[in-house]
Amino acid sequence: MGCLPRIKSPKVAVILLTFYAFTSGCLSTYLVSMISTLEKRFEWPTSRVGWLLAADDLGYLTTVLLVAYYGGKGRQSLVLSLSAFFLFVSACMRALPYLLFGPKFGVDQIRGLFGGAVNASIGSANSTETLIEVLVPNLAHQQAVSFAIQFAGGVVQGVAATPFWNVGMALVDDMAGRNSGIFMGFLFLVRTMSPIVGFLFGSFLITVNEGLVLRPEEFPQGLKDPMWVGAWWLGIVVAGCIVLVNTPLLTMLDVKGLRKAGEDDRAKGRDDSPPVAAAGMAAAPTTSGNVDAIGSMTSIAGRGLDMSNVSCFELLRFIKELYSNTVFLTLYLGTIFEFGAFIILIGYFPKFIESHFYVNANTANMMSSVSLAGASALAIMISSLVSKVFPMSVTHMSLYHAVVNTISALAFPVLFLFRCDKVDMVGPHNFEQDGQLAEMTCYDPASCPKYAYNPVCVGGRSFMTPCLAGCTKLPDLNDTIPGYANCLCSNQTGSPGICAPQCSNVYAYLVLFFCIRVVGTIAAVQFTLIMMKIPSSREMKPLAMGSISFLFGLLGVITPPVAGKLIDTVCIVENPSSSGRSFCLFYDTDRFRQLVHGIGGCFQVPSCLLFFLSYWLSRSRYPVEKDEVTRQKLRRAQKAAEAGGGTGEELQRLPTSG
Q: What is the pLDDT at residue 567?
């Protein structure tokens, strides 16, 4: 350590910490973008993948108090360096299943299968094995081992990210001096934009095959083929290697020198220092990277909970006093309902777009990067600007927060109107129920394999296998238009893949959703400032923010598995499996849409009522409240009046009551 050069420039230190936050944010949302790919790769239902999304929040919850207490006591540069290193370790653990088991399908298997040597629908009616189980005989072992490793990697990721929000943000505030708001605002802006990059990176790698050799053109349905698996592991490895480069540089931070530089800068202009930018204290996305209205309100200050100088008895007293505050309690409860309103859209928005509107996974991720992550980033920048241009009291901020959330809630039910038809899939389970198909005499559907999926579109209807459609000619991918022939006891042709409904209203849906998200999130900074002004003492501010942060972490552990389970209930066609639940191929789009937006509408009603109740309570509890910007303007105006340089008119214009 003594041989390494020391970094004493606050600007360089902020760049290093911003680089770390950016990579961490990209990694988190990258995993969200790969939900459907992981389901296909390991044949997992959505509820199983939900536990992987919850793992990093679980790691955060189990260590945040210890890190908050001990993080400020040791060598903080070493703590930050270890944080980056273990983020690299978590990335390695997430990608380890690929190193152990390789790609799901070999190159020769796929080229032989779709080149005509093997037909996906061949097999006896009494066969108890699916095509997947034939091609991947140790699939059950892969499922169990891979889930355990990836879950552990997620927990490590949550643990690794905790010191950054506790130690790193406190260090930025200490070393930045009068530029604290600028530095923290810049770091937060980059951290807010990083999920967009994560979605776009995931969108690109979905178009790259898991084994890096096969191309989409070699699959009958291209990227939509259930046997196409994107390079899910590659993005994790890249992000891990990038953050590893940052590890030794964080070790070189001269924490004492950086803090002294900040103290000296504050001493130069303590009286006329610029106000702290609201964006610096605004919300950071949760460790799971789910960028939404709720994640947007998880504050940097909350993640930076520091209790190293607080005794247990003081902590209990602070908790009792904080939760006795009715304004805080109503906001707290309202936030829980608001989180519940987006229980599915928080982590599964790309999956909903892909499944409901029948778009490719890469297209769904690109759409999510703008409509979800982009909307939150834009809204928080607007919220920061509003906070700076229009300083508000606690009462006014409570009213502003309640109004914009209510406007968003009133517009939310309109999303119900964007409907797509569900896939009409004919399989062994419903073949005999169709009178027209039951009259076919040229072939016996009972002889078709029970556990197979190789869809074909014939006459506007989708069949799970060419055998069920009576097709006799295999497709040749070398043909100009590959397809099946002699289907349905006639000369009808069939094309590989499903008869996907046309859903051109997806863009109108995304525009409306974008507007709703922007409106619902433009009070994120005000929400954070309210939480920082409610406590009666400075020591309680970290506890207030930590309580909200802890709440988001706890809900981040509970909601992804629950949401995944709910999504599984609207599945109408699973990938055929004789061994249990598998990933869903098609959903009942009507029920899926009703589930997503119905839950949102029901939970937003009590949420908005509680936010307005908080405003009503704040009117009597905080009748005269000036925020930091107003106080500094007041001091400057008073000095100008005393020096004869002001008329006192600016004093009258300043807000003095709620």
A: 93
